[in-house]
Design a protein that fits this description.
Strand content: 15-25%
Distance between the termini: 26 Å
Oligomer: single chain
Structural class: alpha+beta
Number of domains: 2
Number of strands: 10
Radius of gyration: 34 Å
Mean pLDDT: 81
Shape: elongated
Low-confidence stretches: none
Largest sheet: 6 strands, mixed
Length: about 400
Amino acid sequence: MNLLESIQVGIKDLWLRKIRSLITMIGIILGTMSIIAVLSLVQGGKERSINFMKERGGVLKMSVYPREEFELDIKDSQRYKKYLTIEDIEYIKRKVPEIHYFNPQIRKGLDIIYKDRKYNHSLNGIFTDYQYVEEFYVDKGRFITSLDNKKANNVIVLGTSAKKELFGNENAIGKKVIIKGQTFEVVGIMEKKEFYFGGFGHNALEWMNRWNYIPYKTMVKKLINEEAIWDFNFKLDNLEDVMPVKEKVEQILTNRRYGKNLFEVRTNQERLEEIQKSSAQFQIIFLLVGGISLIVGGIVIMNIMFASIGERTREIGIRTAVGARRRDILMQFLVQTVLISAIGGIIGILLGLSLLGFLAKFLSSPTAVSSSMIYIALFCSSGIGIIFGIIPAIRASRLDPVKALRYE
């Protein structure tokens, strides 16, 4: 008997024993459903996190932060400067040509006044490159230009939430606002940033819509009279430059602080790798959980196949007597168990996919499906059939044909 004939016999036997076959498949169906469900949830969470990172500048963005563990006394703080200066930024520009966009910025919470309305949130002194570093662009009007910074012009670009609270539906472009007694012209409105993690209606990027922007030099010269830069972001052109540039910038800043390692350079690429690592760990854990259901299903299949062998002992004896070889008997029963588990796996995959919409809504978490997870689920279910079907198949093939024919 060849493989095709074994499959045909197996399908015929499954059809003749429909109820028992369905009961046998239940464990496999539930196990496969759980694998599809958990993998899709993990994949959805991973894609959501990656998309959130893209909204915050993408994998080519890098940031410099002061190391919190360093505490300097008054004397050392004057010498080492735990903050960045424009001189530091200019030096990095000269020494690291791989960096394409620079955005050192100063952030303060200052009142913005328009007529009888007052708005207080982050006011950022920035450079032109801000848009390209953050991938956050002006929607109406224009952004801060190099000339604005050179001349320390009194111009401001509003976030959408700030614009709404100050101006409502009124056109804000060209209007004047007051900041610390200084008059600023509104020259632009930023695009609206939106990102929703779940089904709770909270915009995770609303804080960006509340930010407002003026030229860096205007902030320093006319509003706060200090140059301490605590927030420095920059962006590269090539992914392969990320880690070399990180090491180079850290070394430059350490040298400029007389060997004190006061700053840390963080990359979005490293954050992405952490997300992918965590996702892989969760996938392994959830696969193990789903695998337990499949193992239980495999044990059920094995027990039912043992019972089936007992019922079909005479049939095995007759087939052996008319010339069937042991490997033909083994193949017949092994194919049958694989068919049961494979069909159960296919049903489980279809049911799992059909439930993803409900899961996403019920758990307020996105789901995502890839072809790899379907292959994994089908491979696991079929593998269970082989693992737990091989022992009954071997027992069936080793039956003594004389005793099998006498079996009642």
